[in-house]
Amino acid sequence: MTKNILIAGVALILLTLASGCGQVTPSGPNPATARAMTLYAVLTESAHNLNNPSPTMSNTAVPVIPTSTPTSAATATSAVTILPSVTPTSSQLATPCYRAFFVKDITIPDYTALNPGETFVKTWRLKNTGTCDWAADTSIGFFSGTQMGGPSSQSLGQIVAVGDQIDISLTLKAPTDPGTYTGYWMLRTPSGGRFGIGDAGDQSFWVLIVIKSGTTTPTLSATAGTPANTRTPTATPSLTPLPTYTQTQTQNPATQTYCKGYPTSNGC
Q1: Under a CB-based contact definition with an 8 Å cutoff, are residues 201 and 100 in contact?
Q2: How many angstroms separate the Cα of 149 from the Cα of each of 25, 109, 119, 153, 186?
Q3: E strands within 89-203?
Q4: Most buried one in 83, 120, 151, 265, CB count within 10 A?
């Protein structure tokens, strides 16, 4: 209420000043009076707004944020090229330092039939196909399966250069129970690392035997057509008559000396 009175007073003063200073023309209202009236109207409206603020409006204008309707953006689909799978071959793999190649069985090929408990010598021929020489203290050792009385480790006893071959022999003993038995063996470096055959040099080589169900005992069989017993012929001596001695008398009968009726030259 006080603000309205103050505004009205200010407007009245302005109106008085305007009427006093301006010139009145018969053709229209005084311009100063019109400006004072306009100012009064503005001040009155402002006072009304201050006394009756709108509950839904604030003194500070709130900028209106335009809303945008999202549109479906184009999805960028990258083209995926499926590369063909490549399986590396043995020539593409790096050659290991230690690797062996099985050449052949010198003795006891696979599925050799043996008697129960029979002692035998197994010999493999291997080739050094790695990139490192085998030292003389490189050894062969049992890996898995049936050991057959073989040693846990046995030195090769010689240097095997890259590309060279060696015959490795083990003295083994066949099991006593019938069946098929396999023993797997590998090589060992002086530091104890295992290696063997295969592209990566990590596979074992083996001995494979078959034990018979029983021993074979030789038997003597009768020979067909054995001759019957025949008597041994007895030697009968034949009597050969002695030759008859006939003496020719060359001496004179008159001078012949006789002894017991037989002629003699020495007397009786």
Answers
A1: yes
A2: 145, 18, 9, 12, 16
A3: 100-105, 112-114, 119-128, 139-145, 153-155, 165-173, 179-188, 194-195
A4: 120
Going by C-beta distance under 8 Å and a sequence separation of 6 or more, which residues neighbour residue 212? 113, 114, 115, 116, 178
Instruction: Report yes or no: 222 and 125 within 8 Å, Cβ to Cβ.
Output: no
Quick check: 163 pLDDT over 70? yes
Q: Which residue has the tokens 């209106």?
A: 64
Overall average pLDDT of the 2-29 stretch: 54
97, with CB counted inside 10 A (0-12, 13-18, 19+), is middle
Measured CA angle at 18 (ends 12, 23), to 5 deg: 145
- Quick one: which of 31, 32, 3 has its CA closest to 15? 32
- Which class for 197: exposed (0-12), middle (13-18), buried (19 or more C-beta within 10 A)? buried
Local confidence band at 58 (pLDDT 50, 70, 90 cut-offs):
very low
What pTM did the predictor assign? Answer: 0.49
pLDDT over threshold 60, residue 37? yes
What is the Cα–Cα distance from 35 to 40, expressed in whole angstroms? 9
The overall average pLDDT reported for the chain is: 72
Distances (CA, A) of 129 to 26, 135, 219: 130, 14, 51
Convert the pLDDT of each residue in 17-35 to its tens digit: 555 544 444 455 555 555 6
Length of the chain, please?
268
The CA R_g of the chain, rounded to the nearest whole Å, is: 71
Q: In which order are the strands placed within the sheet that holds 165-173?
A: 100-105, 119-128, 165-173
- Residue 197 predicted with pLDDT over 50: yes
Q: In the chain, what is the greatest distance between 2 CA atoms, to the nearest angstrom?
A: 253
